Amino acid sequence: MLKTIAVMTSGGDSPGMNAATRAVVRTAIREGARIFGICNGYKGLLADDLFEMNTRSVSDIIQRGGTVLGTARSKEFETPEGRTMAYENLKKRDIQGLVVIGGDGSLRGAQALTEEHPIAVVGLPGTIDNDIYGMDYTIGSDTASNTIIDAINKLRDTASAHQRIAILEVMGRRCGWLALIAGISGGAEYILVPEEKFDLDKICDEISEMYKESRKRYVLIVIAEGAGSGIEIGKIIEERTGIDTRASVLGHIQRGGSPTMVDRLNASLLGQQATRALISGVSNVVFSLKRGAPVSVNLHDAVTKKKRLDPEYLRMAEALA
């Protein structure tokens, strides 16, 4: 049984990180372990910016977006020397285990740390992109997708009023999950993701026909940033169709806001499970959900294997366009 553990949030922030942190801290204390918080991710770990936490440390945070522990990226931690320094800062406080809440880059850092030093590590997938292998859910993805759907609803109103083509560019450099899920749920005619090729000439021809034949009032296109620039694609579509086209880039608003009930509940559940497992000696796993049930995914698999978009959702997007 581990007596002292630590928790950190790392990489891009995501709604629900605070709920997960709260669950980790309160579960550790209930299980009789000491718990330290690491400020500002791996950068704070290298700076020795740690403090012991109690139940009051995580009061009134479950409803807050962002992360009260802070987050930052660290090039120094990517080196063996940096990871050795990080381990020494843990060791001098007798910290035996670490909960890392973050995306694929943060989890890769955790894997390297535990491979090189005798420290137990468990991960919680904190990323709005929902791009971690072996799981259906990542903390923050539900809130972010609902933020996008809200934007789609507003864009549809103004696009319809002016008979425009509305383009919404959302986050997702390597993974189009957010665009796909929000596009389907928001009724988009076209959803462009980095995983799937698309024919812009064909799209322009189809849109032109829509407006000619049915007096279409608007067309909605959702684009993941990794599939191309919404602004540049919008210019091409307007030039080729002659239809007024407006592009919006949603940006970092997708990361913020109070987490949904789904993200609060799942983050709390996973934080509790991860902490109990870590204290009991489990290491090198990431806790999440698959088909609605909790799962633990091998840490190496989570950071080395590529998650693919659900082909059923891709077919649905095409069929319902």
Plain-language structure description:
The structure is a single chain. By secondary structure, the chain is α/β, with parallel strands linked by helices. Helix 7 (200-214) links the parallel strand 7 and strand 8 (219-224). The protein has two domains: 4-140 and 259-304, Rossmann fold, CATH 3.40.50.450; 143-255, Phosphofructokinase domain (Rossmann fold, 3-Layer(aba) Sandwich), CATH 3.40.50.460. The chain has eleven helices and eleven strands. The N and C termini lie far apart (54 Å). It has a seven-stranded mixed β-sheet, sandwiched between helices. Helix 1 packs parallel to helix 9 (261-279), helix 5 crosses helix 6 (177-186) and helix 7 (200-214) crosses helix 8.
